[in-house]
Write a structure and sequence with these properties.
disordered N terminus, Endonuclease I-creI, single chain, about 50% helix, 14 helices, about 15% strand, about 400 residues, 4-stranded antiparallel β-sheet, 5-stranded antiparallel β-sheet, alpha+beta, Helix Hairpins
Length: about 400
């Protein structure tokens, strides 16, 4: 198969349209012929009966062929493809984000990172001594982000009646406050992909053309750690089949988490940084002991135990992360009436246990809203380490930081 010819057939929109058909034109001509024949026959014109008969034959012929193509088109679309379209693209609430909004978000992102107190996070740095913006580390970061906040959508494997190829999609879903982060990622990837709003506060970054998908595959291949790697290999198989390529299968990554930015991307999707205050309380009739004022920090990482879109358990990767952080893995259940779900949770508290995280995220910084939270969280961490939090003025400062972080979460 000629690759360029195949790519030209690639469908660049995220919804399904039927193939162009010649039968409506034929049917229009047939109905016109039928009308002319009927009028001619009723007025006794020569050959009116022949024209009327021809009109009937052409009309029936056109209807049969048109209905046949509609049935074939319907059978070519698998139930899985229909469900993907329904679940991933609710068109009546989705709209494109303008280039102007994306540019403004990127400008704001650049200014925040150049002036950040999180550490040396200028755009020429972003990643410590090992470097973040080299393609190797960017690939790990995007792999973690995809496994935490993204999904892969594949259409039916069969071609349409005109041999058009329906496109797969790589989709990241996030809060609108992370638009600047994704605009920055888009820039680093050479401008590939597009953005859309879904609802008031949710954005999607969608990569859906073949050249961009190939770039993304090459970037994160061999860097995925969850069973989403199975879905990723299905994407590779799809691309190989449709474009006569020979991309190799992606192997599950088992390398040391400390040596790459995968955990940063995964935390960007699922991590939480918290500051906890315990107010001082004196003895009372209901309280046998007085309670001293206390300030503590916590890091938490939650993940749904079973990833339904990819039909995979997240237990193995969460156990690996718990081992990486030297902490325990626990579970709890959230129980919406229609769909109770088990959540796997990792929590780290205690100032002596948090230095490892501070060092890691200094080396591989968070870029989005979680990066802002970490910036404030780290300030408090160093204040506790140096005992500055015991000062009344500094405790007021910590309260203000905690309030800022709380407002940030409220707006997410």
């Amino acid at each position: 198969m000629n690759q360029n010819r195949t790519i030209n057939k690639f469908q660049f929109f995220p919804f399904h349209l039927v193939d162009p058909s010649p039968w409506p034109i034929l049917l229009s001509f047939s109905l016109l012929n039928l009308t002319i024949g009927g009028v001619s026959y009723m007025h006794g014109f020569t050959y009116g009966g022949y024209i009327l008969t021809l009109g009937f034959i052409l009309t029936i012929y056109g209807m049969v062929l048109w209905f046949r193509d509609v049935i074939i088109e319907g059978r070519a679309s698998s139930l899985n493809n229909i469900l993907n379209i329904m679940s991933n693209h609710i068109l009546y609430i989705s709209k494109a984000i303008s280039p102007e909004d994306i540019e403004q978000a990127l400008i704001k992102f650049n200014k925040e990172n150049q002036s950040s107190t999180q550490g040396p996070r200028s755009l020429s740095f972003l990643g410590g001594q090992r470097g973040f913006l080299n393609k190797y580390q960017l690939g790990y970061y995007l792999a973690g982000l995809l496994e935490g906040d993204g999904h892969l959508s594949l259409p039916a494997s069969g071609n349409t009646t005109l041999n058009r190829v329906l496109n797969p999609r790589i989709v990241f879903t996030s809060h609108v406050n992370n638009l600047g982060m994704y605009a920055y990622i888009q820039k680093e990837l050479g401008g590939i992909g597009r953005f859309q709003f879904t609802g008031d506060r949710t954005i999607r970054y969608i990569i859906g053309d073949v050249k961009s998908i190939l770039l993304f595959i090459n970037l994160i291949q061999g860097k995925l750690r969850t069973l989403k790697n199975i879905r990723f290999n299905e994407l590779i198989k799809f691309i190989n089949l449709k474009y006569s390529l020979r991309l190799t299968e992606s192997l599950l990554d088992t390398s040391d988490l400390l040596k790459n930015s995968w955990f940063t991307g995964f935390t960007e999707a699922n991590g939480q940084f918290g500051i906890k205050f315990i107010e001082s309380k004196p003895k009372s009739e209901t309280r046998k002991r007085s309670v001293s004022e206390n300030i503590s920090l916590k890091f938490r990482l939650d993940q749904i135990s079973f990833d339904k879109p990819n039909n995979s358990s997240m237990l193995s990767i969460m156990e690996s992360i718990a081992s990486f952080l030297s902490c325990k893995l626990s579970t709890y259940t959230i129980e919406p009436k229609s769909n109770p779900r088990e959540i796997l949770s990792i929590g780290i508290a205690g100032i002596n246990n948090l230095g490892f995280l501070v060092n890691y995220f200094n080396e591989y910084p968070l870029l989005g809203v979680k990066g802002k939270d970490f910036k404030y969280w780290k300030i408090v961490y160093y204040m506790i380490i140096t005992k500055e939090h015991l000062n009344e003025a500094n405790r007021l400062k910590i309260r203000a930081i905690a309030s800022e972080m709380k407002n940030n979460k409220t707006n997410n």
